[in-house]
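Mods, move this if it's the wrong board.
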Amino acid sequence: MQAMIRIASFLLVFALIAAPGAALAQLSPGPLPTTLPPPPPPPPPPPVVVPTVPQFDAPQPTPRAQLPSRNRRSFGDRVTDCLTDGNAARLSPNDRAAYSRACANQ
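Not the wrong board. Structure tokens:
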């Protein structure tokens, strides 16, 4: 019991001696700046662009060449048809997925 009291008092004295040194590490050396530098100037405003207004008596622009429309079905429709074909061929689910991917992307 005496040894425990002696160890506790030794630790208390050590903590009281070491604590001010640890607290001094928190202070910054030298004076603190009291004024901050001025902020940078704001960026310039964006330029104002006036859009062109179409005129009633102006000639119509020449139309671009029309691309020939390909009568191809939508991707979803092609996938549905390919899955139906895979079902009709009694493919397994993994084979049906591979078949429908290859079939629809043709």
